[in-house]
UniProtKB/TrEMBL annotation:
<protein>
    <recommendedName>
        <fullName>GST N-terminal domain-containing protein</fullName>
    </recommendedName>
</protein>
<feature type="domain" description="GST N-terminal">
    <location>
        <begin position="19"/>
        <end position="95"/>
    </location>
</feature>
<dbReference type="InterPro" id="IPR004045">
    <property type="entry name" value="Glutathione_S-Trfase_N"/>
</dbReference>
<dbReference type="Pfam" id="PF22041">
    <property type="entry name" value="GST_C_7"/>
</dbReference>
<dbReference type="InterPro" id="IPR054416">
    <property type="entry name" value="GST_UstS-like_C"/>
</dbReference>
<dbReference type="Pfam" id="PF13409">
    <property type="entry name" value="GST_N_2"/>
</dbReference>
<dbReference type="InterPro" id="IPR036249">
    <property type="entry name" value="Thioredoxin-like_sf"/>
</dbReference>
<feature type="domain" description="Glutathione S-transferase UstS-like C-terminal">
    <location>
        <begin position="117"/>
        <end position="240"/>
    </location>
</feature>
<dbReference type="InterPro" id="IPR036282">
    <property type="entry name" value="Glutathione-S-Trfase_C_sf"/>
</dbReference>
Length: 246
């Protein structure tokens, strides 16, 4: 259909559902605003040829130095394309200002840097599970190859390295404390602004959902939820916008 929103997301094994952290941010914004859209699933190695064919310019290296082209991207109703979850959310805000994502609140950058810090620290635990548990073979092979180059070892080696296990949680602790502090700033909760939802909440909710998908016997998501009761309250409050994952 013409004039529809198309969200380009990374598929899981059939039946495909949303799993990846960054696409979740854009999907949450779409679900929150109630905008109609359809998902087009694009495997990792197909992102560059697909997005190049659509005329999408590559990522700014200062924003995403790891990938020239990345998911998510969207096609907007005016047939323009936007890549990068933050830029997508801003475009959706312009398209439909209400309900607002409240970018003016100052939390977006703070939450983004905090979540990235935690995610980076927990990567030795989480990342090896992605090709093993979630990805179709083309994406799994791509993921293993690119992450091996990034870490200087295979994902199997990373999972067994001294960077994993309790070391990963120790490295994540400063970021986790920052996130706890952010969620305590407005004690009326459950959102970072108290009773008001903002895009910053969807960065957190997408991260928690990512951890839930990769969890094994409570070792990521379950452990996170036990750290602070506000984490669970926040996740429960955002669940209604996590329901549509396809």
């Amino acid at each position: 259909m013409a004039n529809e929103i198309v969200l380009y997301d990374l598929p899981s094994r059939p039946p495909s559902h949303a799993w990846s952290l960054n696409p979740w941010k854009a999907r949450l914004a779409l679900n929150y605003k109630g905008l109609p859209y359809r998902t087009e699933w694009v495997e990792y190695p197909d992102l560059k040829p697909k997005f190049t064919s659509l005329g999408i310019p590559p990522n700014d290296k200062t924003i995403n130095p790891q990938a020239t082209f990345s998911s998510p991207a969207v096609k907007l109703p005016d047939d323009t394309y936007v890549m990068d979850s933050h830029k997508i959310a801003q475009a959706l805000e312009e398209l439909q200002p209400e309900p607002s994502l409240h970018f003016e609140n100052g939390y977006t950058d703070r939450v983004q840097s905090t979540v990235l810090e935690i995610n980076k620290a927990l990567a030795p635990i989480a990342l090896p599970r992605i090709p093993e548990n979630l990805l179709n073979e083309p994406s799994a092979a791509y993921f293993r190859e690119t992450r091996a180059k990034r870490f200087g070892m295979t994902l199997e080696e990373l999972a067994k390295s001294d960077k994993a296990g309790e070391t990963a949680w120790k490295n994540a602790a400063p970021g986790i404390e920052q996130l706890r502090a952010i969620l305590r700033e407005n004690p009326d909760g459950p959102y970072v602004m108290g009773k008001i939802v903002s895009f910053a909440d969807f960065i957190i909710a997408g991260f928690f959902r990512f951890g839930e998908i990769l969890d094994r016997d409570g070792d990521i998501f379950g452990r996170s939820m036990k750290i602070d009761e506000n984490f669970g309250k926040h996740y429960e409050a955002c669940k209604k916008w996590l329901e549509r994952d396809y």
